Amino acid sequence: MAYAAITSAASGDNTVVAAVTGKKIQVERFVITSSGTVNAKWRSGTTDISGLFYLVANSGATCPGFGAEYWLETVAGQALVLNLSAAVPVGGIVVYELG
User: Fold this and answer.
1) Total domain count, the chain
2) Which of 46, 49, 59, 65 sits in a 20 to 30 Å window from 39, CA-based?
3) How does pLDDT run across 67-80, given as a tens digit for each residue?
């Protein structure tokens, strides 16, 4: 199990976990919070792997863990990216494994 801090603030794609050659990034749980109104979604490289999270100021979203299960998975060799609809600070943490 590994952890990555989420400290994204740029509109568009923000890499949260860098790509690892030949490995998938399997997200077990995450928490994101926003300081303003923004839509956020997870991506595998440039491909969406979640729907939108509609966040307003001082709100957030969480996906709890379920043991060995995971919520999201990137394609092998692609980064885990948080895409933001606007330049709004979004923070949190993601718990993942490489598969």
Assistant:
1) 1
2) 65
3) 668 999 999 999 99
